[in-house]
Design goal:
By secondary structure, the protein is α+β, with helices and mostly antiparallel strands. It has four helices and five strands. Strands 1-2-5-3-4 form a five-stranded mixed β-sheet. It is elongated. The protein starts with 14 loop residues before the first strand and ends in a 29-residue tail after the last helix.
Length: about 140
């Protein structure tokens, strides 16, 4: 049985990855040969982001490797707050860039963009006001 030839990549094909942070899950599509446009939940990034730090967070993997205007990003993100969503998008972009070029792994790993930040809010325990905050004690 002859081996089948590998499928060639189409120009409109995209690189896909999931990014996660706290309760946020981002599904990121990277389109090569783009102009640097970022769309989050069908909204341009400038309208979606509330603070400049969120924009910087999302663009940071591109700036680190010097490919800031080479890709278009289409991200769908659900859950969590705005900062966690921005970090989830950054995580997804970094993982999608690895599909583009595996040689970027060392650079992205050193910056901490590939590793999923698994810190989540600790659950509240019974008898306490919050996860560890006990009710105020009164001696008298």
């Amino acid at each position: 049985m002859p081996a089948q030839p590998k499928a060639k990549k189409k120009e409109n094909q995209y690189l896909y990855a999931n990014g996660k942070r706290k309760c946020s899950v981002a599904r990121v599509k990277l389109f090569p040969n783009g102009k640097g446009d970022v769309i989050v939940n069908e909204t341009p990034l400038k309208d979606w982001a509330q603070v400049k730090t969120q924009i910087d967070c999302i663009y940071s993997p591109f700036e680190l490797i010097g490919l800031s205007k080479k890709f278009d990003v289409d991200a769908t993100v659900i859950g969590g707050g705005f900062n966690a969503q921005a970090e989830a998008i950054r995580h997804g972009i970094a993982k999608a860039l690895l599909e583009h070029d595996e040689m970027l792994r060392v650079t992205l790993k050193k910056a901490g963009f590939i590793t999923r930040d698994s810190r989540v809010k600790e659950r509240k325990k019974y008898g306490l006001k919050r996860a560890r905050r006990a009710p105020q004690f009164s001696k008298r």
